[in-house]
């Protein structure tokens, strides 16, 4: 579900580039971009989970895996 | 690579001898939300933004230089025939001592332009929001400048520039929508 927050694009790659190309780059579009005024009565995390995640509402949650992580992270390329 | 047309984007007429106004117009020349900041901000952000919106930043950044020329023309016309005494009376004494009739990139309070006025985060959403905010701040500055002169010809040019900020802001917002798109699209990796 949260994976849908990621977008990819393919930068121009020149045959004359000095380094091996990164063919796909990623950026994240967090959910606040789609909620212009938060509606009432959205589903909620448990309080313990909310404290840990930083928001009470799953609809606002945006995970950010480190790009340094090999697996599961959004390393460029 | 640029092609230069030796004319202004919109005519600049100054019908009132008012060096005082030059002192305030310089806010849009070398101020934080001025045209130099705008041009350099957009033309610099181009490199790390998705291809879909590079052209928009190129076009708007280029247009900002055309606006910079218009502001420069206004300031030049207002100061070129002023005596040192008139400049001092207009609050431009310090400017005269440093630059005589030369143009310089500082804001209305005399602070020199700094690259700290512009930002690039490398994140396309963050960068475009910076641009939208910059356009709204420039629009506002134009409003206060229009409020500050009764020269209808300067007002006319400033109103054109103010309108361009409104258009640019909308184009940047459209760019955000373009980069937000394809959320519903099913992706298979």
From TrEMBL, chain A:
Q: Record's Pfam families? A: CotJA
Q: Which domain of life is it from?
A: Bacteria
This chain belongs to which protein, by name?
Spore coat associated protein CotJA
Task: Look up and give the organism this protein is from.
Answer: Cohnella endophytica
TrEMBL record, chain B:
What GO molecular function terms would the record report?
Answer: metal ion binding
Which keywords belong to this entry? Answer: Calcium, Capsid protein, Manganese, Metal-binding, Virion
Give the family, as the similarity comment puts it.
Belongs to the manganese catalase family.
Q: What is this protein called?
A: Spore coat protein CotJC
Q: Which domain of life is it from?
A: Bacteria
The positions annotated for binding Mn(2+) are 35, 64, 67, 135, 168
Q: How is the cofactor bound?
A: Binds 1 Ca(2+) ion per subunit.
**Residues that, per the record, bind Ca(2+):** 59
Q: Which InterPro entries match?
A: Ferritin-like (IPR012347), Ferritin-like_SF (IPR009078), Mn_catalase (IPR007760), Mn_catalase_dom (IPR039377)
Cofactor requirements of the protein = Ca(2+); Mn(2+)
């Amino acid at each position: 579900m949260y994976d849908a927050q990621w977008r990819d694009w393919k930068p121009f790659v020149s045959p004359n580039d000095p380094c091996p190309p990164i063919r796909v780059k990623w950026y994240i579009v967090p959910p606040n971009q789609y909620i212009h005024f938060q509606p009432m009565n959205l589903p909620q995390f448990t309080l313990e989970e909310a404290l840990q995640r930083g928001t009470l509402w799953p609809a606002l949650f945006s995970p950010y895996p480190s790009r340094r992580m090999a697996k599961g992270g959004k390393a460029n390329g | 690579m640029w092609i230069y047309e030796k004319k202004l984007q919109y005519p600049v007429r100054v019908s009132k001898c008012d060096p005082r106004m030059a002192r305030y117009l310089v806010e849009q020349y070398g101020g934080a939300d001025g045209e130099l900041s705008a041009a350099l901000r957009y033309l610099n952000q181009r490199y790390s933004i998705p291809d879909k919106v590079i052209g928009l930043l190129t076009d708007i950044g280029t247009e900002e230089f055309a606006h910079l020329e218009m502001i420069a023309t206004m300031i030049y016309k207002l100061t070129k025939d002023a005596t040192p005494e008139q400049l001092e009376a207009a609050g431009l004494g310090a400017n005269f001592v440093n630059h005589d009739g030369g143009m310089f990139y500082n804001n209305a309070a005399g602070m020199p332009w700094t690259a700290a006025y512009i930002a690039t985060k490398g994140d396309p959403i963050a960068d475009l929001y910076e641009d939208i905010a910059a356009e709204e701040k420039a629009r506002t500055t134009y409003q206060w400048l229009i409020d500050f002169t009764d020269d209808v010809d300067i007002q006319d040019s400033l109103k054109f520039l103010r309108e361009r900020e409104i258009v640019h802001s909308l184009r940047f917002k459209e760019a955000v929508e373009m980069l937000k798109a394809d959320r519903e699209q099913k992706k298979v990796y």
